[in-house]
Design goal:
The complex is a heterodimer of chains A (115) and B (115).
Chain A: E1 3-5, E2 9-13, E3 18-25, E4 32-37, E5 44-49, E6 53-57, E7 60-65, E8 70-75, E9 84-94, E10 101-105, E11 109-114
Parallel strand pairs in A: 2-11
Antiparallel strand pairs in A: 1-3, 3-8, 4-5, 4-9, 6-7, 7-8, 9-10, 9-11
Chain B: E1 4-7, E2 10-13, E3 18-25, E4 31-37, E5 44-50, E6 53-57, E7 64-70, E8 73-79, E9 87-94, E10 105-106, E11 110-114
Classes of the chains: A mainly beta (115), B mainly beta (115).
Chain lengths: 115, 115
């Protein structure tokens, strides 16, 4: 079966650094993505890791270790606007036509940034 | 441009109504997706179109009927829905080519309420 584990809630203060972990067990693996979703909004793509290592995009970084089936999202210099849900998502199954991959989402981590 | 548009933003319908949700992208993406999302839950995949062909139907009830008129448009036809179908319906698209280019980009969603 497919399963992704991430913490349900994380709280931190403005200016701090927070790490959201994600462990996965999926039948196929074609990369780990991270999405941010504010209340009432749509998921917004943050980052993708197809290979082991760290990807950095501004204040956000994402890491992947395929041997450990583990990744994390690192948010630095937290701002109030970073309060949102964060989903890790694994590209697993291949879709029959073309080469699109199906995404399996974790249950999401609610990040609350306090002043 | 990574924009996926959806109309309407909000929809209230009775259980006997017929309505349609619309999704459009002009990024040249060849894979398009419908997701359903309940509050505080991750998006659940409903349908995938890859190169304008229905590739995945995740055991969705027949009261939901997808349609892909062309590579830029995706519709979801609704008929005889139940109150438990009330949710945020998200459309997404991706290049459909696999690899890093297969990032899914989400539209803003349609908030559906079934009375």
């Amino acid at each position: 079966g497919q399963s992704l584990e991430q913490p349900s809630e994380v709280t931190a203060v403005e200016g701090a650094i927070v790490q959201i972990n994600c462990t996965y067990q999926t039948s196929g693996f074609y990369g780990l993505s991270w999405y941010q979703q504010h209340d009432g909004g749509a998921p917004t793509f943050l980052s993708y890791n197809g290979l082991d290592g760290l990807e950095e995009t501004g204040r956000f970084s994402s890491f992947l270790s395929r041997s450990d089936s583990y990744g994390y999202l690192l948010l630095q210099e937290l701002q109030m606007k970073d309060s949102a849900s964060y989903f890790c998502a694994v590209r697993d199954s291949e879709i029959s036509s073309g080469s699109a991959r199906q995404l399996t989402f974790g249950s999401g981590t609610q990040l609350t940034v306090l002043p | 441009d990574t924009e996926v548009t959806q109309t309407p933003k909000h929809l209230v319908m009775g259980m006997t109504n017929k309505k349609s949700l619309k999704c459009e992208q002009h990024m040249g993406h060849r894979a398009m997706y419908w997701y359903k999302q309940k509050a505080k839950k991750p998006p659940e995949l409903m349908f995938v179109y890859s190169y304008e062909k229905l590739s995945i139907n995740e055991s969705v009830p027949s009261r939901f009927s997808p349609e892909c008129p062309n590579s830029s448009l995706l519709n979801l036809h609704l008929h005889a829905l139940q109150p438990e179908d009330s949710a945020l319906y998200l459309c997404a698209s991706s290049q459909g080519a696999g690899g890093p280019g297969d990032t899914q980009y989400f539209g803003p969603g349609t908030r559906l309420t079934v009375l």
